[in-house]
Amino acid sequence: MTDTSPHESAHTRAPASQRSRTAEMLEHAKRLGKMIPVTIDGNPIEVPLGTSVLEAAQRLGIRIPTLCYHEDLCLAGVCRVCVVQIEGQRTLQAACSYPITAPINVSTHTAKVRRARRHVIDLLLSAHVGECYTCSRNNHCELQDLAAEYGVDAFRFGRRETRRYPIDASSHAVVRDMDKCVLCRRCVRTCIDLQEVGVLEALRRGARTKIGTFMDKPLGSVVCISCGQCINRCPTGALRANDPTDDVWDAIDDPDKHVVIQTAPSPRAAIGECFGLEPGNAITFKLNSALRRCGFDRVFDTNFAADLTIMEEGVELLLRLKRALVDRDSTAALPQLTSCSPGWVKFLEHFYPEYIPNLSTAKSPQQMFGALLKTYYTDLNGLDPRNVVTVALMPCSAKKFECNRPEMCASGFKDVDYGLTTRELGKMIREAGVDPLKLPKSDFDDPFGTATGSGVIFGTTGGVMEAALRTVLELVTGLKVEKFFDHADIVPVRGFEGVRHVEIPVTQVGPVPPLVAHLFNNWKWLKGATLKVGVAHGTANAKKVMEDVKAGGQFSQCHFIEFMACPGGCLGGGGQPTPTSPAIRAARAKAIYAEDRSYTIRKSHENPAILKVYDEFLTDGPCGHRSHKLLHTTYTPRGKYIE
Amino acid sequence: MIVSTRTGSLTFAEVAPGKGMDVALARTPADVLRWIDASGLRGRGGAGFPTSLKWELAAKSPGALKYVICNADEGEPGTFKDRVILADFADLVFEGMTIAAYCIAARQGIVYLRAEYTYLRPHLEAVLARRREAHLLGKGIAGRAGFDFDIEIHMGSGSYVCGEETALIESLEGQRGEPRNRPPFPIDTGYLGNPTTVNNVETFAWAACILARGADWFKEYGTAKSTGHKLFSVSGDCQRPGVYEFPLGITIEAFLQEVGGEDAKAVQVGGAAGQCVPRGEFHRALAYEDIPTGGSIIVFGPQRDMLRVAANFLEFFIDESCGQCTPCREGTIKLLEGVKMLQRGQCSMDYLEELCSLGETMQLASKCGLGQTAPNTFLSIVSHFRDEILGRTAAWSPE
Ligand SMILES: Cc1cc2nc3c(=O)[nH]c(=O)nc-3n(C[C@H](O)[C@H](O)[C@H](O)COP(=O)(O)O)c2cc1C
Ligand code: SF4
Ligand code: SF4
Ligand code: SF4
Ligand code: SF4
Ligand code: FES
Fold it and tell me: Which ranges of chain A have pLDDT less than 70?
């Protein structure tokens, strides 16, 4: 299970200098499987043709320091921290980007090599406004680590004390502090090659080189989709999320405010990493206790809203299908595209605005929850929505953008006041002096307490689709989904391949359940139909699917397609702890699927809290009038031209 | 009007255009390669890579689409000989490119022309049109079915580093002009991922001459390792600046006599990327095995302040570094700061040593030739002009 390598994409937009043909060539060469003997520091090893010196050294357990290299990204070979001596070569070579094509002898720590690495680090520090105390990356910064590893004890070539660049905080999601940038260009490669958005690029040259946007505009006014993937891969504090923790503390400290927090499954599966746990250990219920210790008045499970999203989005899909198949209404926009990933939504608004009618109008779980908290919940508890502050713990930086969208004010107040990333909450918990790992477990608060496994798997790519299929199949067939898929695990939509296409036949139909009886008379029109669905994660893959839809390919025949902006889905979100890698994301996914299995109720439409909400509050049912007002939204065609 | 500054007679004026191609096309590509190999021709762009080897590798590299690129970016400070060749002997250059295409089975040639030479473009286009009419370009060249080759001109887009062959290719592809990781080399992964040979303007012209006159004729001049004649662009403190042709191996002393720069204090050989040779070493030869050069010779008279010289070149590199890699981008800044400290008499010997060591790191660890050569002048001035640069006081400094 690995992400599709970005180098395999034929339409990659990264220039070769940023992408290194080596990578592509090497992938190809590696498949040839020819073995080449090499020695590294005297240790012999045979590696497949095309393996980089760095990889070969790693196999031998020899550490070569790196900075611009990142496992998820194409090669750049620009920082020169990883230089090694190859026997017979006049110059040193960058281990990360030197492909082994013939037997070579490599030395990784000769005097020349050590001196060069130390010089490179000294030079980086000389151009760096090092303010570690006040830096978001203090204590987990790759530049700091390198300085420590190489025993830097003085600023040999001086240090920069005066700032050159203003901090760009124009985006709701990403803050850029270019005085801390080491020009490794990981962000550039992330944005252009991994995500294929292409917002960031090196501007100017020589001493004036700087990472910037088109015409050096503020990030808030370009086509950035706020996915935060660049933050996750930045080795330093040059990129960080827009951090609202001070405001959240203020709200907590204000006795007149009732502060509630919802937590999404992906941060729960990753926040342990902020406290030294190995990736892949969810601490959901200990986290509840930690949040109460921090002073949150109530702790809710976003999964509840995920189940609600499935109800709304699933019924919306059935309505669209009916319009298309029964009413022969050519304006029924199919395939329906999911809308729960705000980075993806912004991507579509910028690059495929003509497909806005296809976007599900259902809000994301975060926003649905916010809307209910400031209506249903305040009604129930006699609270004034004015005094309720809703906080969302999300794996995502785009959620910050989403909660600030002007239309997200269903109750007349912001649905969600603050979006916190996993990293930011980790910081708050530490600040409160709490060690979540040592706390007892505690449950979520009512009335939304109970959640289902379907909500949990929202966090991983394919999860929304699986949850929706569980519900749609049961609503339509009247049978348990376990009858079609063992343990209700719809395995075909799982996995990490960038793009998936799955067909699920509807062999039989049952009676229309009461919940949606006001919308449908019968399901006869679905009998014998084949549900065609697609899944894509990472916007580079999303782009492939959308181009296919545009060209009338197989995805244009789909009924429903799940999109997530981030590679791996939410568990790889831009607000998750650093570092990130395919292995870390796979571990988090395992934790999420394990949590799904642990629930007794695993289908959204069986969630009693959901049924209760439809019974007591959203009384005109899914996609009814009230839910349209509170739980559905509109979109903005943005286009890709910047004024 | 096309201005050229040539001095004395050039071989290129004596070789009849067309002869080289006739000779080449009468032989197999392998024979032509052997011929070039026998001549010992090495790249005239500066690095001196054996031309026949480069072409042979490109020929062997699998691929249906191959490219011949003429590097006419001529960005090295103090070089202007390619301009003269293009202005006066464009036919020879195109002939050389066609011969290269014949050797490696390329179908397309591209001249990457320095933006400042835009004024040469109409002339070059006219020469190309004439050659097409004469069936020396296009389909079935010179009546040989299957030998299709044409040349287009692409204007350079700016910086000095675009003369570096992989940056040149990036620039051709419409990207930021930045050097790539090597390997892979252009001969297997060049323009648009296809096998590509990139050669200097002069290299192509000599290839045509070698076919016309024979490898032995070429080898008669120069040294065993640096055969033939080479064009030099001469500027600075001398009486007769201009473009000269000399056999490789000529000593700097002899050279200075020819150009009227006998009282020189130092000579910058190879432009900003080259080295600064002091008077005491004027017996050395301009040849790949001694002091290699792409042809730029800048003469410094006795009145020149060598720290100004170092500062000047470093300022050039600070601007012209593509900014990709740390040693080059940041190292050049530190060296210039060091020069300024020397000018004020404020650089300790320890720090000077540290800077020299940094210079070595830049030579070893930079990603491309620009950063690898950027400290050369600084290092040679520090080692050869110690007395001049040390012990200055702020009052002494010209700044
Ligand atoms: C920074 C830099 C600039 C260069 N500029 C030029 C140039 O302007 N013209 C040129 O012919 N070669 C230039 N070169 C050398 C080319 O990379 C390449 O080696 C040359 O074009 C090969 O041609 P040759 O083998 O015929 O010499 C430059 C190299 C570097 C590193
Ligand atoms: S980026 Fe790293 S080195 Fe720079 S100030 Fe922040 S923690 Fe310190
Ligand atoms: S947040 Fe996403 S779209 Fe925006 S610059 Fe970063 S990687 Fe690119
Ligand atoms: S912003 Fe971060 S990732 Fe981007 S180049 Fe600078 S240090 Fe590297
Ligand atoms: S050495 Fe200089 S010009 Fe060459 S890649 Fe590095 S920064 Fe760019
Ligand atoms: S890690 Fe290899 S050059 Fe940066």
Answer: 1-32, 450, 643
Burial class (CB in 10 A: 0-12, 13-18, 19+), A350: buried
Topology classification of domain B229-300:
Ubiquitin-like (UB roll) (3.10.20)
The pLDDT assigned to A16 comes to 54
Average pLDDT score over residue span B97-115: 98
Q: B349-365 vs A111-126: helix axis angle to the nearest 10?
A: 110
Residues B269-288, mean pLDDT to the nearest whole number? 96
β-sheet with B108-113: strand ranges across? B150-155, B108-113, B67-72, B196-200
Indicate the Cα dihedral angle A36, A40, A44, A46, nearest 10°. Answer: -30
Q: Which of B329, B357, B366 shows the shortest C-beta gap to A206?
A: B329
Long-range pairs of A178-181 with CB within 8 A, sequence gap ≥ 24: A178/A210, A178/A211, A178/A212, A178/A238, A179/A128, A179/A129, A179/A238, A180/A128, A180/A129, A180/A130, A180/A131, A180/A135, A180/A236, A180/A237, A180/A238, A181/A210, A181/A211, A181/A236, A181/A238
Residue A393 · residue A425 · CB < 8 Å: yes
Distance CA A99, CA A34 (A): 13
Task: Provide the β-strand partners of residue B198.
Answer: B69
Q: Classify residue A160 as exposed, middle or buried by CB count within 10 Å of its CB (0-12, 13-18, 19+).
A: middle
Residue B263 makes CB contacts below 8 A (sequence gap 6+) with B301, B302
Whether the model pTM is above 0.90: yes
Cα gap A443→A301, rounded to integer Å: 10
The first and second tokens of residue A339, run together, are 């809308």
Residues of chain A with CATH 3.40.50.1780: 245-304+366-438
Q: A80 contacts in B (CB within 8 Å)?
A: 325-327, 365-367
State the first-to-last Cα distance of chain A, in angstroms, to the nearest integer.
Answer: 42
Q: How far is the CA of A445 from the centre of ligand 5 (A)?
A: 58
Tens of pLDDT, residue by residue over A429-473, are 999 999 999 999 999 998 887 677 777 888 788 888 998 898 889
Q: Taking a C-beta distance cutoff of 8 angstroms, is the pair A110, A89 a contact?
A: no
Task: For tokens 């449950």, name the residue.
Answer: A443
- The distance of B23 to chain A (nearest Cα, Å) reads 38
Task: Give the 3-state secondary structure of A571-606.
Answer: HHCCCCCCCCCHHHHHHHHHHHHHHHHHCCCCCHHH
Q: Is A359 helix (H, G, I), strand (E, B) or coil?
A: strand
Q: Helix, strand, coil proportions of chain A in percent (round to 5)?
A: 45, 15, 45
Q: For domain A309-362+451-631, is the CATH number 3.50.40.10?
A: no
Helix (H, G, I), strand (E, B) or coil at A103: coil
CA distance A173 to A420: 10
Angle of CA points B291, B293, B298, to nearest 5°? 95
Contacts with B193 from chain A: Cβ below 8 Å: 16, 21
Which residue, A615, A621, A626, is CA-closest to A475? A621
Specify the fold of A245-304+366-438.
Rossmann fold (3.40.50)
Q: Compute, in degrees rounded to 10, the torsion defined by CA atoms A260, A264, A266, A268.
A: 40
- State whether the beta carbon of A237 lies less than 6 angstroms from ligand 2: yes
The DSSP secondary-structure symbol of A373 reads: I
- The sign of the dihedral angle between the CA atoms of B169, B173, B176, B180 is negative
Residue of A363, A374, A399, A590 with catalytic role: A399
pLDDT at A568 (0 to 100): 87
Distance, in Å, from the CA atom of A573 to the CA atom of A576, rounded to the nearest integer, reads 6
Please provide the CATH number assigned to the domain covering B11-219. Answer: 3.40.50.11540
Question: Which sequence spans correspond to the domains of chain B?
Answer: 11-219, 229-300, 306-390
Which CATH architecture best describes the domain B306-390?
A: Up-down Bundle (1.20)
Instruction: Name the token pair of A230.
Output: 């660049």
Which residues make up the CATH 3.40.950.10 domain(s) of chain A? 309-362+451-631
Q: How far is CA B324 from CA A80, A85, A121, in A?
A: 10, 21, 15
